[in-house]
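Researcher: I'm preparing a figure for a lab meeting and need a structural model of a single chain. I don't have an experimental structure, so a prediction will have to do for now. The sequence is pasted below. Please return the structure as tokens so I can convert it later.
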Amino acid sequence: MKIVTFFAVSCLSVMLLLAGCAGENEALLVWLDNDDWAEQVIAAFNERYPDISVEYQNVGSVDTRGKVSLDGPADIGPDVFIMPHDHIGLAILDGIVEPFPAELRERYRDLLLPAALGTCTLEGELYAAPVSTENIAFFYNRDILAREGAEVPESFEELKRFAERYNRPQENRWALRWTVDDSYTNYFFLTAYGMQLFGPGMTDFRNPGWDSEAARRGVEFYRSLKAYYDVKVADATYDATVGAFQRGEVPFTISGPWAIGDALKNGVNFGVTKLPTIEGRQPRCFSGSIVAAVSSYSRKMDAAFAFADFLVSLEGERILYETTGKMAAWQDISAIPGLRDDPYLRGIQEQAPYADPMPIIPEMAQAWDAQKALFTFTWDGLLSVEQAQAKAMETYDTNLSVAGKRRFEDRPR
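Model: Understood. Here is the structure written out token by token.
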């Protein structure tokens, strides 16, 4: 584990805004995952709170939850740490995250994206602050569209009409390429007809929804696209789909902000916008966040919450964008220098209002393979839609059983 430490240099009195921090001489320990980001954000934090010493350790966000569970009780863990939002459920069960004060929770309602806040909220309590967010969107190649004399399709119906004249199967030329069996990406087909994963609040693990009529209609529409991208699942790899778009070979793909960098490096002239509608409905995708949490083992709660709050402040988010290129989880990014002028992330955010927070309940870990069954087996024609729905439910029940859970208790005889 790489360790970099930055200390405040001011000898001014402790900030009155941080009531309760006086007398705490030990440094605030924070776990972040990028040295440039950490150095700059800590320096800016110290300008606002000059009497708080901050120690930084570089710990990968996917590793923090497990480490806090071990290091926290040993009094060597962080005061503030980041993690993917879908680790929140287990972090809450482990008792390692402290709920945010009501004052911050209320303020964030007007500042941050509801979907991002939803990834950090359980039973009315906010357990972390969403620092950055991401979701999928629709990518298009400007040069190819110009050659074809076409506009960016706003609906899948328009996209199909474009594909009918553009596709040349014998040359492996397809208008739209995407990872056709990816459970995360293809979720939006299910929501287009109203399926709600785990119920309205996305918290009822007994009701995944894959056996619903809405899911059936979504999978049927998804399956209809096989006529416009007639390859097997095994051939729709990331390199053959998103990678091909990044090389300038494909008019359209469906991906997220992680696909922007390589497309820019390759000089592709492209744009990003929200997903096309399906029969007049704007589909909803998954939203994911990197979140900042305060350890329940911290002995410097006020300072810890001040640091977590600073990460999602205007200054904190400006630094995040400038050092990492990540998108703030703000409802309105127009106030954030740099980010407001980024045409690609602006395009990603066009879809953000139509994004569901990826469920934070622990049972989501058992859901991915089950949901994937809806796509893998129907695309290759191995199962009918109804059979794939039953397969998804069966897979989910099996996964729950392996994890020591079940959707319904046995009824007494």
